[in-house]
Fold:
Amino acid sequence: MQKVYVTAAAMTKVGRHFNLGFKELAYEVVERVIEESGGEAPDYLIVSSTLAALQCHQLDVSTIVAQALGLSGRRRIPSIRVETGESSGAAAVEIAVAMVRSGMAKKVLVVGFEKMTEYPSAKVNADYSKILDYELEVMRNVTPPNYAAMIMKDYMRRYGVSREDLTSWPVRMHENASRNPLAQLPFKISKDAVLKAQVISEPITLLDSFPLGDGAAALMIAGGDFIPPGSEGVEVLTTCSSTSTPLYLRDELASLPATASLRKVADAVLPSGWRKDAAVQVHDSYSIYGVLALEALGFAEPGQGYRVVEELEYLNPGGGLKARGHPIGATPIYGMCELYALMMEGFAGLSFSGSYGLVHSMSGPDYNSRLIILKR
Amino acid sequence: MPRPEERVGILGWGAYIPRFRVKAEEIARLWGFEPSVTKALWIEEKAVAAPDEDAVTMGWYAAKSAIKRAGIDPSLIGCAFVGTESKPYAVKPSATIIADALNISKVKLSTDMEFACRAGSEGLRLATSLVASGTIKYGLAIGSDTAQANPGDILELTAASGAAAYVVGPSEEAVASFEGMVTYITDTPDFWRRDCSKYPMHGEGFTGEPAYFHHIMTAVKLLMEELGLKPSDFDYAVFHQPNGKFPLKVGKRLGFTKDKILPGIVTPWIGNTYNASALLGLAKVLDSAKPGSRILVAPFGSGAGSDAYSIVVKDRIEEKRGLAPKVEDMLRRKKYIDYATYAKSRHMILRNV
Amino acid sequence: MKLSISIHWRRKETHYRLALTKCRACGRVSFGERKVCPYCGSKDVTTLIPSGTGTLLSYSVSYFRREGDEEFLPRITCLVKLDEGAIVPGELVDVDPDEVYIGMKVEAVLRRYSSDDPYGLIYYGLKFIPFLKG
Structure:
């Protein structure tokens, strides 16, 4: 079995790139990753996009990206597209790691992109909602923020937490983003601003939720035997993933069951006390999910997650989905890029003294959950 | 020889009135009507269906209540007729949607009927005939409308939304039995809507004497003559209610006292629900009439025609009343909305879709 | 035509009648017509049509705007625990947000879910309203 490393990473600024299509966005990050890899092309391309078919009218995006980037011609690099809702990028990494570990490939280029601004927001919102079950939820006019709102209400009621308590999440995320030049919303906000922002689905406001922005991010995932000594980068210790039942089949709303099931993998792979020695990137499409992810992964007891948001030094260093942005298919790859940068040379004004990195991603109210564990 | 309809009766009745009301004075104010017009017509407010409601959804609710009161297995219902002049589809039956959603037999007669405001009543007559002939055991007839009126037309003060439904079946199982029913129709063009036109047109004064009054009075007199009854033999008289005044006026002319007409009046508080109008009035009377009471019901439809029914309430009715919401409950359930909300709810605001 | 006819049509039992799956092995009831019980994995399941009444478990007043939502916002999205035990996600209508409370008794009513305007089909299904007493 090969040891697996992230050997290069690149990301674009998240925002409204009206002048750039998905090909241009992908080109920008892929070129930088290949350049960082000494100009050598990968032997496999994995593309992650959630909404390409609905927003860009494009099927088989991995082939189209390969063609657009000159990877398909004389090099004939094989490619595959991965889609698992909001966690697509983590699924792409999961497959890349498996391919390299098994020896099926030496170097796999993973690129994630999303164009979120090709249509007015009402269409983007409608398409994004389809991460839920179209027949049983979407057709019945139930959308992702509605579920997040009901989960948040249940959390507040169950643990006696106030709406104001939960502003700790977006305030921290914006503070982090203010040091990240690639963030879509690189500015600080106040608790009051969160409370007074437009309501999306009460109690969730605009500032509990992610902005719509385009972006792309890429990684080179390579096997230990094929890397020149000294250029190993960050090791991928393991990847794991899980699925859970629809929210309406759960006995409890205020928890993330799929994410919680991944905690034991982290505890098994990492030495005890690893949490004090780790940087973490969790999925926070809505504030409550960030808090619940910290609880599910053992950074806080149930009902206490909102209290540790300010204490954790290396928490979503780029500003999370909330403030860095959530170009859906690229999002987990942004999380990987940010932790890679942090572990290699420091990122967003932070230098990292620890050893481990965790990238968590999920889709909707934890319908599937994925974890990638890094070590330097 | 006994009349065939004597073998048939009402097993269950159901009503539906949407929650929203717009005041007639609000409509009058917007379109510059002299304020006393609402008193002249005796219209106080009208029921407005929500944007996600239509003749199908309202008819469904009324039918569900009627089946609940009837206490029968819906899969034994052999016909489903929907009388409406606000079909959600110009072509595609509303009746099949309602029937499937209520699990009514798939081996049944089912159609939407159109005869202005009396199509629902025609459905009731047909269902009764099918039961009387032995073709089916139980039948369902629905009158349901999200009545349209051209904005600014006097008709807009009254055109409203509502539904009523009846399950008919063998007289032995009935809570109210038919003694007789007659229909009188002529070609009298008092009110119409052309193909693909959004709102109906009407002959204003022409809707009165030659249409409403002539047809109802002819039908009611014919019924009383055939059954050998006179107005004083009836405890209640329910008429089609284009406004609050017409039913009182036609009843008076026929010799019915006001106290027999008032219990079946609904229009001043919900408006003219077209196909549901007289049938909702009947439902309101069935909600409270004592066993043994005799009810005259005379729906009217423009174009034009009128039915007249004589119905006698039976003992079993008492146990059925509490099984579904009463008309009074639906009248009390209300929220006032402004003209803009009413216009939005009835899809009257021009939008790009 | 923007919406599929067959996708909607084949789920009539779900949308018109809230069809549930009842597991003969573990006894639990789940929303949707399923081949396998989501709780215990048994394939010994049967379809159960609920009465349509239940209590409000959770709700949120939503301004989240999708294409086609314009006439209906804000919506009240909810989870309802049916009397048969299953929880169903859906919409609560005919009530003002400040009148809604957890534990409120509700009943299912047929409404329009969506319509493929201006020429396509109208899609009907059950939503919830505060329970109307008989």
